[in-house]
């Protein structure tokens, strides 16, 4: 070992799937975390994020930003899913049959079925015997 690093361990970064974002990307993602701001105009979003419109549009073309935004959307969706699933569980505990069925469907252990009975009558023309007799009459 050479003089400077002797006895010191260098920090090792663990590999991560987290996308690397620019400062503008981080700022925009922070603004997009607020659901009320997502529906605003591009100009307003850029002002809140303190980025230019050019940066805004450039970021939406970036695979790293898109991956980060997709992760943000999934996290947001999951944050709403937990309270909804807890409420559904409470409904099931109170004996709500529809809630019980929904939980069992989500778990993959129940699949609703519908029995449909149909009668179909096809007119496919004369049978072979009728054709034979008709042919015999035509020859006579």
Structure description:
The chain is 60% helix and 0% strand. It has helices at residues 23-32, 35-38, 42-49, 53-60, 63-93, 97-107, 128-139. Helix 1 packs across helix 3 (42-49). The chain is elongated, with a radius of gyration of 33 Å.
Topology:
Blueprint: H1 23-32, H2 35-38, H3 42-49, H4 53-60, H5 63-93, H6 97-107, H7 128-139
Helix pairs in contact: 1-3, 5-6
Characterize this entry briefly:
The chain is mainly alpha-helical. It is 60% helix and 0% strand. The chain contains 7 helices and no strands.
Provide keyphrases for this structure.
single chain; 140 residues; mainly alpha; 7 helices; 60% helix
Structural class: mainly alpha
The DSSP helix count reads: 7
Q: What's the number of extended β-strand segments?
A: 0
What is the approximate shape?
Answer: elongated
Low-confidence stretches: none
Radius of gyration: 33 Å
The biggest sheet, with number of strands, parallel, antiparallel or mixed sense and barrel status, is: none
Mean pLDDT: 82
How far apart the termini lie comes to 115 Å
Query: What is the share of helical residues?
Result: 55-70%
Q: What is the helix/strand order? A: HHHHHHH
Strand content: under 5%
